[in-house]
Structures are given as C-alpha cells and as structure tokens.
Specification:
Keywords: Aminotransferase, Pyridoxal phosphate, Transferase. With about 400 residues, the protein is α/β, with parallel strands linked by helices. It contains twelve helices and twelve strands.
C-alpha cells in the first residue's frame, strides 16, 4: 500500500530516549532523566484539585465552543493584562490541543504547499517536521553565539537574497533547545521587517514566565503587532504537559480560517483540561509556579558552576526555559557524536540527556541539551554522576 511522503518526517530522538528511560526504570535502574522538556514538579495544587473536582462533580463533559470555554479565555485576558499590560478580548484567543495543535492550525490556515517558513537552527524539531507534513518548506537560519542563537534581520535578508521570498518566520524566545532570548530591540526590528516584507511572524511563547536575572526583557509579539500569531501553552510555566492544552492569539484576518479548521481537526480542546486550567490563575497557583521557577534557577546555577569539572564547551546563554545547550567539549575526544555520548551516559550512569541532532541536523552531533526542571536533589546527583562519567 502507498505511504504518503508527508508522513516521512524524522522521528523525535528525545522520544526514543524516553522509551529507553522507561525500560530501565522497569528494570529498577536508578535513572535520572534530564531529557524531556517537561517540568518534574507538575501542576499547581489548585489545578490538580480542580481536575479531581471535575471528575467527581458530574459536570457534563461535552464539546465546548470551538475557541474554548469563555471563562478560561477570560482568565487569559486578565493574564495578558497582568504580564504584558495588554488589553485583549476573549475573541482574540483560541484554545488548542497543546501548542502543537496551534502550530498545525496556523500552518494550515496561513500557508500553501511550497511556502517557505524560516526558523532558527538549532531549533525545536517539530516546527520543521509539521511544516514538512503540510507540504511547506522549512528554511533553517543558521544561528550561533554571535546572535544569541536567535534569528536576525541580517540573516533574513541574506536568506531572501540567496534563495527567494519567505512567507513565514517562527520566533521562540525563550527558545528550545538553547534557552536563549531575543532582545526587545532585535524583536522590534524583526517585527518591522516581517510587516514590510509581508511575512507572517509566529511567536512561540510557551516558556514565558521561566526566565532568569541575566535575561533580556520578556516581550510578547502582540506588544509589537497584532497581525503576528502568538502561540503558548499550559505545559511549561504551569507544569501541565500531559493536559494537552494550549492557546493562540489569532489576528483578525486569520480567525475564520483558524476557526473552520479547528472545528474540523479537533472540534475543541480537551474539556477536562480547560476546566482544570481555570484554577491556574489563582494567586496561589501563580506563587507555586514561580517557586518552581526558583528551583529551576538554582539547578541552572548548579550546572553552570559545575561546567569546569564536567568538561563541556561554552554553553548558549541560558536566559530562560529550563535548558542548557552546549558542545561536547573534551567528550568529543572519546565519542564520535552526541548520540553515542548520550547513549553511554544513560546505559552506564543512568542519566538521560538529549543529543543535539534533534535540534540541528547539521552541527547537532557536537551538542547536547540538558533539562534542569527537576528536583534539586536529582540535579545534584545527576551532576555528580556526569562528572564521574566524564572523567573516566
């Protein structure tokens, strides 16, 4: 039988690692996972209790409106006033099945087959893979330390001059895998460039709320232009990755298309998750989530302080999110690439980290990503095991 070429996208290597972690844990091995991009602490207590209440209250869990429950979108309106000083309407928001669902809806609504959409490399691999699955052309913009691993206007102009017009650009700040952020000045310049060149800017803001003292100011793309698309989620700051609940800020010109597609693709975002997520906006939920960010900050500093003993190279500026992305350094003398190193570390010391090839198919074999959104005890133990392993 025929297999569609649209489905022939690379696997996400971190999922292979997670499968091996599960196997080792089933064998009672003492695995510490610094691999998957999810917070170990989980959702705030108010959210967990709300999820229990939903199941015991007898509430009818039918379909919601396509855009999602009005009370949750109302909370998001208040959230954007609180964090960004923006005055929005519930009509600006569409709730989705995770941020992934929002990306799919955006790509289907905004782009035609063959349209070229730029993204920083290294970058989150699902951007590239979802674009390929809808017959768009992902365009890697090489982004290194000189630009904080973020796109620049100069890089965009060079790409257009060399290969032709772009129809879209994906920005992530803080970014996965690097944790780097774009400065407000550069973000403004890119926003203006996109407007001038009729390029749709898609801003991935799922790591907002998770930043550290040295980071540039956090900025939402809608502070610059409401013709951009903003995508976010409850997965990271609120620690709800398995709830599969995200949202979009949708420009007026895309709303009919997004709504029509959403109604056909998913009908609505998960109803139970919507009801539970309302409790994420209590003062105690904000405070609990912020306390988790403080733990990430302590773990981040622990890891950075240990770099001389670990032997890795100079990391990307870990401005936000909960990642450190760094070269193998002296480990490159012993291992052919980061896949070999990560596999050996997992099998011998039971510490799981991610090879960079997921994020950069060209140079990622020389890099690894470490997730520090774990307990302080696990982070300390993982660092000790890695130091011992790297000295062998």
């Amino acid at each position: 039988m025929k297999i569609s070429r649209r489905g022939q996208v690379p696997s996400f290597k971190v999922m292979d690692i997670m499968s091996r972690v599960a196997e080792l844990r089933a064998e009672q091995r003492p695995v510490i996972s610094l691999s998957a991009g999810e917070p170990a602490a989980g959702a705030p207590a108010d959210v967990r209790q709300a999820a229990i209440d939903v199941q015991t209250s007898g509430v009818h869990l039918g379909y919601t409106a396509i855009a999602g429950r009005a009370e949750l979108r109302t909370e998001l309106v208040e959230h954007y006033r609180r964090w960004y000083g923006l005055e929005l309407s519930i009509d600006d928001f569409v709730l989705t099945t995770g941020a992934s669902g929002a990306f799919l809806l955006t790509f289907l609504a905004a782009f035609d087959p063959g349209d070229r959409v730029a993204l920083a490399c290294p970058g989150y691999p699902a951007y590239r893979n979802i674009l390929q699955s809808v017959d768009c052309v992902p365009v890697d913009l090489p982004a290194g330390a000189e630009s904080r691993f973020q796109p620049t206007v100069a890089g965009l102009e060079a790409e257009v001059a060399a290969h032709g017009e772009l129809q879209g650009l994906i920005i992530a700040s803080p970014a996965n895998p690097t944790g780097t952020m774009i400065t407000p000045d550069e973000f403004s310049k890119i926003s203006q460039w996109c407007r001038k060149n009729d390029v749709l800017l898609i801003s991935d803001e799922i790591y907002h709320g998770i930043t550290y003292p040295t980071a540039p100011k956090t900025m939402s793309a809608w502070e610059l232009d409401r013709n951009h698309v903003v995508i976010s989620s409850f997965s990271k700051f609120w620690g709800m990755p398995g709830s599969r609940l995200g949202w979009m800020l949708v420009p007026e010109f895309l709303r009919n298309s997004v709504s029509s597609l959403a109604g056909n693709v998913a009908l609505c975002a998960p109803h139970t998750a919507q009801l539970a997520a309302v409790a994420g906006f209590t003062e105690s939920s904000y405070a609990e989530a912020e306390s988790h960010v403080a733990t990430y900050a302590a773990n981040r500093q622990r890891f950075l302080d240990a770099l001389p003993e670990l032997g890795f190279g100079e990391p990307a500026p870990a401005d936000g999110a909960f990642y450190v992305y760094l070269p193998l350094g002296r480990m490159a003398e012993r291992y052919e690439n980061s896949i070999q190193y990560c596999s050996a570390l997992l099998e011998e010391k039971y510490v799981a980290i991610v090879p960079g090839l997921d994020f950069d198919p060209v140079e990622g074999g020389d890099y690894v990503r470490v997730n520090f959104a774990v307990s302080e005890e696990d982070m300390t133990e993982a660092i000790e095991r890695m130091i011992a392993f790297n000295k062998i």
